[in-house]
Amino acid sequence: MIDFQKFIKSTTFAIKGIGSMIKSENNARIHLLASVLVISAGFYFQLNLQEWLWISLAITLVWILEALNTAIEAIIDLVSPEFHPLAGKAKDIAAGAVLIASIFALIVGTIIFLPKVLLL
Ligand SMILES: Nc1ncnc2c1ncn2[C@@H]1O[C@H](COP(=O)(O)OP(=O)(O)OP(=O)(O)O)[C@@H](O)[C@H]1O
């Protein structure tokens, strides 16, 4: 049987996690600002359905990877608070994943918005 109370509780924890990420991570606040700006620009330029889908994919990918990166950082700080090359390697690779998604988002944003900005 589906336990809806449990589902609501775990959704609340997930929202709490997103809130704590935005509070503690400077990069997450940058993603938030970028997301708000891009979505506002999307409304301004009246993007079509396909453009909205690409923008949504790019924004969502960055947020998912930032969340995973933040979680990985927290686990590493817990299990390896002292310096360890593997801890540094894991953090750098997790940060690399965010960078890859951010570059993808930048490419998508440029392809969609640059022609519209040039026509202004
Ligand atoms: N325990 C550790 N052992 C070895 N190197 C570490 C360790 N912790 C952090 N580092 C190195 O220092 C860098 C910065 O670590 P930090 O925990 O500040 O991550 P960050 O990417 O700056 O995260 P934040 O988004 O919280 O600022 C890492 O990318 C890693 O190279």
From TrEMBL:
Which keywords has UniProt assigned to this entry? ATP-binding, Cell membrane, Kinase, Lipid biosynthesis, Lipid metabolism, Membrane, Nucleotide-binding, Phospholipid biosynthesis, Phospholipid metabolism, Transferase, Transmembrane, Transmembrane helix
Where, by residue number, does the polypeptide cross the bilayer? 30-47, 53-72, 93-114
Enumerate the GO terms in the molecular function aspect: kinase activity
Q: What is its EC number?
A: 2.7.1.-
Lineage of origin: Bacteria, Pseudomonadati, Bacteroidota, Cytophagia, Cytophagales
**Its family?**
Belongs to the bacterial diacylglycerol kinase family.
* InterPro entries according to UniProt: DAGK (IPR000829), DAGK_sf (IPR036945), UDPK (IPR033717)
- Subcellular compartments: Cell membrane
Q: How does it sit in the membrane?
A: Multi-pass membrane protein
Q: What class of enzyme is it?
A: transferase
What top-level branch of life does the organism fall under?
Bacteria
Q: What is this protein called?
A: Diacylglycerol kinase family protein
